[in-house]
Write a structure and sequence with these properties.
The complex is a heterodimer. By secondary structure, chain A is an alpha+beta fold. Chain A is built from 4 helices and 7 strands. Chain A has a 7-stranded antiparallel beta sheet with strand order 1-7-6-5-4-3-2. Chain A starts with a strand and ends with a helix. Chain B has 2 helices and 2 strands, in the order ββαα. In chain B, strands 1-2 form a two-stranded antiparallel ribbon. Chain A: InterPro entries: PRELI/MSF1_dom, Slowmo/Ups.
Chain lengths: 210, 116
């Protein structure tokens, strides 16, 4: 079973600026969970597209109800790969991001497509899709809910991080209140998701004893 | 969620159970040729010894990407040497840490995914 999610985002910056920011978006105030960043492959194709593979390590703290089911030795850092294609002729960028660790516990794949906003040539539209799946017997639904909720929180942080870096690149001082509002909203989403996932997990547990 | 306790005072050093070093961001001191980029914090490499090589390469790449690649200028890539040095270091670190990067085609995982 796979949970699918799709959303659209908008950045009020040109596609060029967004692409430049894409390579410089870490660190930012919303990315404290991203520990390391490395380009591990890069090439310009014969059709003049830039293809790259980026390796990220992120903190991977599971909620307490999930930690009980994890093997004791499981690392608390997660490895993530992000592949991207930048096409300067078509003015599009496509990215694919997925975790290469903890994948049997939970797998999250995200595909993004960046293009010039058709209504405003100075803006950039981001179409984002995600697939969340888990194979843990008896808990996959709860884990998928948790994964999807965390993904949505992550999208908020990603967009805020982008806006922050874009503002800095243009010499502006990003507003502090922007950061604070984002934190609040992220916390609220996380809390709601935590409750829902906890609920699902306790239902799953009850079923085991029937 | 437990992990959303992170605060937004930046540069929290995290030491995890496995014992690998935590992240410490550091502000890069100003470089004369790039006055606008003073005090831009930067990321570490997964290979602790590779961080300087990574930052050197990133600086070269970011300039080439914005000033040449996106503007359709196909004249040579000035970053091949710094890339080579960086890759030699980081690929060794990846092997040493046994990070499972092999065996997946570029853009591979999404090949069979249904469209929205």
């Amino acid at each position: 079973m796979v949970k699918y999610f799709c959303c659209a985002g908008l950045l009020k910056n040109t596609w060029d600026q967004v692409c430049v920011a894409f390579w410089q978006r870490y660190p930012n105030p919303y990315s404290n969970h991203v520990l390391t960043e490395d380009i591990i492959f890069r090439e310009v194709t014969p059709t003049n597209c830039l293809i790259s593979r980026r390796l990220l390590t992120k903190t991977s703290r599971a909620p307490r109800w999930m930690e009980r089911y994890l093997p004791k030795h499981m690392a608390s850092s997660a490895y993530i790969i992000e592949d991207s294609i930048v096409d300067p002729q078509k003015r599009t960028m496509t990215t694919l991001t997925w975790n290469i660790s903890h994948a049997r516990l939970m797998s999250v794949e995200e595909r993004c497509h960046y293009r010039i906003n058709p209504e405003n040539g100075s803006w950039t539209e981001i179409k984002r899709e995600a697939w969340v799946s888990s194979n843990v017997y008896g808990l996959s639904r709860a884990i998928q809910e948790f994964g999807l909720a965390r993904f949505k929180t992550g999208v908020t942080k990603t967009m805020k991080g982008f806006e922050y870096v874009l503002a800095k690149m243009q010499g502006e001082t990003p507003s502090r209140t922007l950061a604070e509002t984002a934190t609040e909203r992220a916390r609220e989403t996380a809390l709601a998701a935590k409750e829902k996932a906890k609920d699902l997990a306790s239902h799953a547990q009850k079923k085991q004893y029937v | 969620m437990a992990h959303s306790k992170e605060s937004h005072s930046a540069h929290v050093v995290v030491a995890d159970r496995v014992g690998t070093a935590g992240r410490s961001s550091r502000f890069r001191s100003s470089v004369v040729s790039e006055p606008k980029r003073c005090f831009f914090p930067e990321m570490n490499s997964v290979g602790e010894a590779c961080t300087e090589l990574k930052r050197e390469y990133d600086t070269c790449f970011n300039r080439w990407f914005a000033e040449k690649f996106l503007k359709g200028d196909r004249s040579g890539d000035p970053c091949t040497e710094s890339f080579r040095k960086y890759q030699r270091c980081v690929q060794a670190a990846i092997k040493e840490k046994e990070i499972p990067i092999d065996g997946v085609d570029f853009m591979g995982p999404n090949k069979d995914k249904p469209e929205s």
